[in-house]
Amino acid sequence: MTQLHALKQKTHSINTEIYALYLAYRDGRVAWYVRVLLALTIGYAISPVDLVPDMTAVFGYIDDVVMAAAGLRISYKLLLKAVRQEARLQAYEEMGASTRASAVAVKVVGYAWLLLATLLLVFGYKLLHLHML
């Protein structure tokens, strides 16, 4: 049971660090190229769409880990130390207080992907039927 508890704490810590990077992204002192890298990294980390599908043995999960870890590491190094510390402190305060906001965020991302998939299906359907006439 202690290993499970340690794993949960580590997972919470990683989630809080990712949220701290999001908070740093919103800070005005962060350069534009760091913002772009953070947006791409965080988007890839929470997105259900992957470069290599998770169904592919081993490589499906390795690409997620490598892409997210590399992007987060580079972003972390490019951030100012003061911005990192302030964002981390705010993230630990907010993540300890609220879990409803994270549930809402997951729903928003899920609905956005569902909307995109629906639009692509409708577009593909119309494209197929236009060529059949």
Q: Care to count the β-strands?
A: 0
Point out poorly predicted stretches: none
Helix-strand topology string: HHHHH
| Alpha-carbon distance between the two ends | 64 Å
Helix/strand/pairing category: mainly alpha
The pLDDT mean sits at 81
What is the total number of structural domains?
Answer: 2
The biggest sheet, with number of strands, parallel, antiparallel or mixed sense and barrel status, is: none
Nearest-angstrom radius of gyration? 18 Å
What is the 3D shape? globular
What does this structure look like?
- By secondary structure, this protein is mainly α.
- The protein folds into 2 domains: 2-97, no CATH class; 99-133.
- Helix content is 82%, strand content 0%.
- It contains 5 helices and no strands.
- The chain has helices spanning 2-25, 32-46, 59-78, 81-97, 100-132.
- The longest helix is centred in the last third of the chain and has 33 residues, at 100-132.
- It is globular.
- It starts with a helix and ends with a helix.
- The model has no long low-confidence stretch (mean pLDDT 81).
